[in-house]
């Protein structure tokens, strides 16, 4: 997690663990640990849970393939970010990897169908070790989940780390601003339905009154 989010993430994870313990009517015994996920000794939260000396984590461990084989995740709290990672000169304002995402690039259905067929060849999908090497060599933007990628960036030089760029392709979550137009349309529909209801009620009442007067 980013530093501003770390404290809130820990509190959220601890609260979730407390709710699970309460639901199971179990006794809460806190086991302090010095590390998060180190496997060099038995003092990390990951090792205590995977070895059975603790039953549940009170914090947050991001989901990784190697950890799924050792842990069962009750809920996903760690942010999920998917996108492209590549090396680029920071002073470059005209990057070839960013260009396809600009509004000036026009794409038709024929191009999309061609790309769909082309991407299914055997060499299109690469494992993360190969992807990291392709990023380090340059000229390739590798698409993966960022949390899975970060541990593999230790082989990069400081200069390469400074040149790393990221493009998100799948948002982590939908916020209020993303659905604001839908909420506005829904509210307008509710107001319009109430207006129509009042008009129909008024017309029915007026018609009934006129009919009663004509009968008299």
UniProtKB/TrEMBL annotation:
Record carries keyword Membrane: yes
Chain ranges passing through the membrane: 179-203
Keywords in alphabetical order: Membrane, Transmembrane, Transmembrane helix
Designated name of the protein: Ionotropic glutamate receptor C-terminal domain-containing protein
